[in-house]
Design brief:
By secondary structure, the chain is mainly α. Helices cover 65% and strands 8% of the residues. A two-stranded antiparallel ribbon has the order 1-2. Helix 1 runs antiparallel to helix 2, helix 1 crosses helix 3 and helix 3 packs antiparallel against helix 4. The chain is globular.
Length: 130
Amino acid sequence: MKTILNIIWLVLSGFWLFLCYVVAGVLLCITVIGIPFGIAAFRIGVYALWPFGYTTVERRDAGAPSCIGNVLWLILAGWWLAIAHIVTGLMLCLTIIGIPFGIANFKLIPVSLLPLGREIVRTDEPFAAR
């Protein structure tokens, strides 16, 4: 079932969201300071490409640097990636078939706003990373 959902997601919104994250990652990797943010953008982009079967968990070892990094991320790229998820989610919710995918878009908004200090794991092992 996850495979079918991921394929439908890829066609409806996953590819375009992935491209948004790739553009953000490339722009952030232009400077040396932005490289960690670019890597986070690529990591979340892959998650936005195939979200079903995966979830995010907080990393307990992430401290103050990830908090500061999240503030910088929010200013640099997070807000417009969140807007992309909101617009895509609203458009998908216009049809009955698209409602679950719209809800999945809304669930990706917190990750797009504050990605640092989170880890992407399979849904069948959310506590394995701890």
